[in-house]
Design a protein that fits this description.
Blueprint (H helix, E strand, L loop, with lengths): L2 H6 L1 H13 L18 E5 L2 E4 L4 E4 L2 H4 L8 H13 L8 H13 L5 E5 L2 H16 L3 E5 L28 H4 L2 E4 L4 H8 L4 E6 L2 E2 L5 E2 L2 H14 L2 E5 L11 H6 L5 E4 L10 E5 L1 H4 L23 H14 L3 H23 L5 E5 L2 E5 L8 H6 L2 H13 L2 E2 L6 E2 L6 H19 L1
Parallel strand pairs: 3-15, 5-6, 5-7, 7-10, 10-11
Antiparallel strand pairs: 1-2, 2-3, 4-12, 8-9, 11-12, 13-14, 14-16
Helix pairs in contact: 4-12, 5-12, 13-16
This protein binds pyridoxal-5'-phosphate.
Pyridoxal-5'-phosphate binds next to α6.
């Protein structure tokens, strides 16, 4: 299975040997490792990545789905170049943070006030704390398969089997106030919260890392009602879905408005970012001019509202704002989901292709995939094999992870995805 890849990536193999000596597992993020070793990127442009051996890959991973305009889009790069000339980091207040806050408020239904962080993990951490500060309650509900970054209180119930801790070093103290609920199953959620006093329910409108599984609209609406009924804050983690499913993210796509929303990825226009935003009365808990210790909720960070990230984010959102590019990508996403399913089925292979908008993922199973349990019942080995076969033929998916579209993907890129999928399907369908 690895031979075609190894024969094309000898310089990457050497680099990986070097990397292993100084970087645990040879990588800077565990998920970036894949067998037999990752390739090493030297440059990227538009829809393509180029590795140290001179191989070209059509990139459907897109920097963890962040690069919705592709790699180094000219409009963003030009703005960033100008910004770098006048300052890379101020550590003081500046107009760009206001402009990006205004832009987010214009696009996102729930965003009355916003604070910027440097990653999605941080934003989720501060959002959870804010919810606790506002409600005066401790418990947080998250969902099986939900990924919100590495913050202790949310780093639970991510992978099946859900009862095994996701990491060593998580204390019982950090986890005892976290409740893990079943996704797309309102009765299951009700059961979990029946005897609890809950501060917030945190949900990705579409499970990303958990299998690219959209929430059912009714489920989200009923979750909203449940929160209202019990005085629970509803937090949408839109780190993946934000500015992608629709200009206003999953909440606009589903017409369900959360109390707090968490962003990352696309918001930074290719630079590090995170943000949390929401209802004014909730966000005001961060206002040290109104609340003092112990009633205010802290947030901060040396690089918060970094001017380069703000500039890149603004240039990106301005291009996405009218929904034209997003609609176009969503239509292509629909076509991809249909066509991949058709190709495998024509070759006698059971597959479910999940996703929404410009995000998609294949699961080799006959069973409908409505939660992460079903993802782990599917043939994961075949998924790795499929992705490795694509990689060896110049189409990059991070093995087992979802694929994403950018405005830089061409019709030829999509056709190549189909033809390489067909090549693999024919081989394994025999
Ligand atoms: C839905 C979701 N939330 C939060 C995060 C964490 O963001 P970051 O990796 O920027 O810390 C991710 C990262 O993939 C994510 O997909």
């Amino acid at each position: 299975m690895f031979d075609p890849y190894i024969s094309k990536t000898q310089s990457s193999k050497d680099l990986y040997e070097r990397a292993k000596k100084f970087l645990p597992a040879g990588v800077s993020y565990a998920i970036r490792y894949f067998e037999p070793y990752p390739f090493y990127t030297v440059r990227a442009r538009g829809s393509k990545l180029y590795d140290v051996d001179g191989n070209e890959y059509i990139d459907f991973w897109l920097g963890h789905t962040a690069l919705i305009l592709g790699h180094s889009p000219p409009a963003v790069m030009n703005a960033v170049k100008k910004q770098i000339e006048i300052g890379t980091h101020f550590g003081t207040s500046h107009e760009l943070e206001i402009e990006l806050a205004e832009q987010v408020a214009k696009m996102v239904p729930s965003a009355e006030m916003i604070r910027f962080t440097n990653s999605g993990t941080e934003a989720n951490m501060y959002a959870a704390r804010l919810a606790r500060a506002y409600t005066g309650r401790n418990k947080i509900v998250k969902f099986e398969g939900g990924w919100h970054g590495g913050y202790d209180a949310l780093h639970v119930g991510v992978k099946h089997p859900f009862d095994i801790p996701e990491s060593a070093g998580l204390t019982n103290g950090a986890l005892q106030d976290t409740i893990v609920a079943p996704f797309n199953n309102l009765e299951g959620v009700k059961e979990k919260v029946r005897d609890e006093t809950v501060a917030a329910i945190v949900i990705e409108p579409m499970l990303g890392a958990g299998g690219c599984i959209p929430a059912e609209k009714e489920f989200l609406k009923e979750l909203r009602d449940l929160c209202d009924e019990k005085g629970i804050l509803l937090i949408f983690d839109e780190v993946v879905t934000g500015f992608r499913l629709a200009p206003g993210g999953g909440q606009q796509y589903y017409s369900v408005i959360p109390d707090i929303t968490v962003f990352g990825k696309i918001l930074g226009g290719g630079f590090p970012i995170g943000a949390f935003c929401g209802r004014r009365d909730v966000m005001e808990r961060l206002n040290t001019l109104i609340y003092e210790r112990p009633r205010y909720s802290f947030h901060g960070g040396t690089f918060s509202a970094n001017p380069v990230s703000m500039t890149a984010g603004l240039a990106t959102l301005k291009l996405l704002e009218d929904g034209h590019l997003i609609n176009k990508m969503n239509n292509v996403g629909e076509k991809i989901r249909e066509q991949i399913k058709e190709i495998f089925e024509a070759n006698g292979i059971d597959v479910q292709v999940t996703g929404a908008g410009s995000l998609f993922s294949a699961h080799f199973t006959r069973e409908e995939v409505k939660d992460t349990r079903a993802v782990f019942r599917a043939d994961r080995k075949k998924l790795v094999e499929y992705h490795l076969s694509l990689i060896a033929n110049g189409v990059f998916f991070l093995p087992t992870h979802m694929g994403a579209l950018s405005t830089a993907h061409s019709e030829a890129d999509i056709q190549k995805l189909f033809s390489e999928t067909e090549k693999y399907a024919k081989l394994c369908g025999k």
